[in-house]
Amino acid sequence: MAYLTKLKGSPASIPPRPSFKEISFISFGAFLAACVIGFLAYYTNQPIIMGSFGASIFVLFVLPDSPFAQPRNVIIGHFLTTLTGLIFYHLVSLDWWSMALAFSIAAMQYLRVSHPPAGSNPFIVFLLGANWDYLWMPSLIGSLLIVLVAILYNNISKTRSYPKYW
Predict the structure, then answer these.
(1) Which residues of the chain fall short of a pLDDT of 70?
(2) What is the pLDDT of residue 4?
(3) How far is it, in rounded angstroms, from Cα 7 to Cα 14?
(4) Which of 23, 72, 57 lies closest to 146 in space, CA to CA?
(5) Residue 162: predicted pLDDT
């Protein structure tokens, strides 16, 4: 019965809504980050975009103080999980269980580079049937670009300081 009681949730209230100014600042920064990778993908005709980057942009601009938003977590997290996905896809098996084993939560936690959006990268690798070059583009180059925009933009604000650590 105690288990079922937990399902009701705790009595915590919904967090307050950010101010319009804060929402505008966050939204414009996220827009800029998406523009940078979108424009470069279009202009260079290179695959700099991957699905998990949308969630990364959210984390970097909405939650810049979070450990999940720090540059090492974003860049190494994306690199590590993409590498894991590629290893399991190309060297282990194309079966569903291989994709499940490639899910890299333990590796990110062990290396202290947890970045939740990167957790989807092995699935992306399997769904696309990605080649080894997917590791550096879009995974590494794209995550570096998003972090660069976050560093430049988040520090424009007088109330923000990003990153908290490297």
Answers:
(1) 1
(2) 86
(3) 17
(4) 57
(5) 97
Task: Please check whether residue 65 is in contact with residue 38, taking contact to mean a CB–CB distance below 8 angstroms.
Answer: no
Token pair 């650590």 in the structure block, residue: 165
Can you read off the two tokens belonging to residue 28? Answer: 């414009």
| 122-129 CB contacts, 8 Å cutoff, 24+ apart | 122/81, 122/82, 122/84, 122/85, 122/88, 122/89, 123/85, 123/99, 124/50, 124/51, 124/52, 124/82, 124/85, 125/82, 125/85, 125/86, 125/89, 126/85, 126/89, 126/94, 126/98, 126/99, 126/102, 129/89
Contacts 24+ apart (CB under 8 A), 64-71: 64/150, 64/154, 64/160, 64/162, 64/163, 65/162, 65/164, 67/114, 67/164, 68/114, 68/115, 68/116, 69/150, 69/162, 69/163, 70/163, 70/164, 70/165, 70/166, 71/147, 71/151, 71/163, 71/166
Whole-number Å distance between alpha carbons of 67 and 74: 10
Q: Tell me the C-alpha distance between 86 and 60, whole Å.
A: 25
pLDDT at 1: 66
Cα angle: 96, vertex 98, 100; to 5 degrees: 75
